[in-house]
């Protein structure tokens, strides 16, 4: 039997740089990379009709029950990271598909969060565009030192972000449904209510795993409360988004 491996959603064309597939190819495995997302579920099923193994990049392509039902040749589904909400694991098991994950980086998401935060605070995208247009320093950013960083979800990612905030001289406050004052203090943060967090924070960042309980944790009311008691003209950049927040509340 000829095994076929499909690497999905490799937008940046980097999968072959992170792993050596030559041993598989030498053993007769046909490796195919797909850089673009599939236009429809039917297109996905058609492309993977004879595929026995799939590497999924995070949650970029969903694998619900109906997909497993239409891919009888599929035996192995590997996801980057140890959790993938887009895979129906129970359905995979019923159809004889083994699902496993790869270790993820504990620092990638926190570092990207901080990069976005600095870019917003210092207007980096706007200034980069302005500089290319021949204009020098068209805006004034804010200093993070002395500002308040609000973290919604003080888990593995949130704790690292809290450490970055401390390193930049920020006062760190945090909230999540089950967070205790002791746990917050261990991460260098102060426990506050969700309403208070959005009232006092100069910067707010959301780090919650998506679940029915966490969905829409941050709605329109929370960002609307931001600014109470602040000085006129003070900026309030935020790094947040996804189904855990109401997108319109951050626009």
Task: Please explain how this structure is put together.
- This protein has helices spanning 15-18, 22-26, 41-47, 65-69, 89-94, 108-121, 124-132, 156-167, 181-186, 194-200, 221-225; strands at residues 4-7, 30-33, 53-56, 76-80, 98-102, 148-152, 171-175, 190-191, 203-206, 238-239.
- With 251 residues, it is α/β, with parallel strands linked by helices.
- It has two domains: 4-102, Rossmann fold (3-Layer(aba) Sandwich); 108-250, Rossmann fold (3-Layer(aba) Sandwich).
- The chain has a five-stranded parallel beta sheet.
- The longest helix is centred in the middle third of the chain and has 14 residues, at 108-121.
- The protein starts with a strand and ends in a 12-residue tail after the last strand.
Question: What does this entry show, briefly?
Answer:
The protein has 251 residues and is an alpha/beta fold. It has eleven helices and ten strands.
Write out the CATH superfamily name of the largest domain: NAD(P)-binding Rossmann-like Domain
What's the CATH architecture of the largest domain?
3-Layer(aba) Sandwich
Q: Based on CA inertia axes, which overall geometry fits?
A: globular
In whole angstroms, the N-to-C terminal distance is 53 Å
Structure annotation, total helices: 11
Radius of gyration: 22 Å
Q: How many domains, in number, for the residues?
A: 2
